[in-house]
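Suppose a colleague, Dr. K., hands you the sequence of a protein chain of 396 amino acids and asks what its three-dimensional shape might be. Before reaching for any lab equipment, you can write down a predicted structure in token form. Begin with the sequence itself:
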Amino acid sequence: MLTHLVLLCAFLCTSAVAVSGASLFGKVIEVNSGDVITITNLNRPVRVRLLAVDAPELDQAFGDVARKHLSDLVYDKGVLVEYAGISGDHSLNGRVLLEGADVGAQMIRDGAAWVDPSTEHRLSETDREVYQQSEEAARGERRGLWQQANPVAPWEFVKAAALRTKPVATASAVAPVTKPTLDRPVPELTSLTLMASRLAPAPTATRGGGIADLPGFLAPVNGGNWHVLRPARERFSVLVPEAGETQDLPFREGMGHSYRARDGRAAFVVTWLTGATNGESDADAINANVAVFLKSFGIVFNPRNQGDPQSAAPCESQNEKDISMHGFTGLEFEVGSCAVPVKVRVFTRTINHERQMYVATVLYKEKEDIVDRFINSFKITAPASTQKGTKSAKTN
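The predicted structure, expressed as tokens, is then:
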């Protein structure tokens, strides 16, 4: 079941109203390996995997050295994480910056890690060039692991280990292997954590802050003209400001996309996602996601929550309305009991054994006409066959 689809939408929504780029700040409380750290954010542990960096495995030559080197760089220090998704082991993938310096590039430059060929494409062109040049320089100067005659890349080490455990399997039949993790509780890293961290006020502020605390709402923004968004092969349409951006959002259970835009003092996000289902009903899928959505907003924006986030009172949904159409179960609701006004429409349906979910979210400071215009325009379109049939009937 896609237990956090609505939360992914909320996470994207926060990116639309905050500073450009998705990032969070935290103190490093543990160095798990040469390319994984754990930081604390909103009193919760968040595990971070350094984007485009692959250090030797802990049971591989130089593995302990790489972890010690990373620890010397960042342990017990505050770092900024510019994240770009969630990996299969629930770690956050991102660039880690210490006082503006790229920790991943430093690890590679010091000969403590390789550039990860499986994720380097997610770096900007400039950062990718820096990482590659850092590895070339470390190799040329025989720094760190490059002092070995033939150092084995971590991905080759993992592949060889998998083959040893399954000697009768062919290389093509071996299932993807994730890096080993230490025997400890997995940090709670979900879309809830990401969303909450992006909505969180500055460290000196208190919880329950208003929307005016968010940088994106300090001044109105001219969103320009509006147009109809109707992605190919998707079953929805919506009216949105033209001056927006589309973002891919791969996640553990499937694939997502979002369109984000601003106009006036409102932020608009449309998210469409496809992923696994465990046979839950459409109504159950919506109800479960909405419950966690309200809980996550409550952590930061419910004025009553001044204590432990884990026991935080959720925000409350208001004016719920069944908007099911064309075989999709749909729900519209508002969040008015917390400091941030939010209006949401969500549709879902299981098609070909996969759950599809479409979500429209708007955060606003004042209830302008464009808020309802956006929400009311978000609808499920009829199947292609029905649309063609209707057109033919009119022609005849």
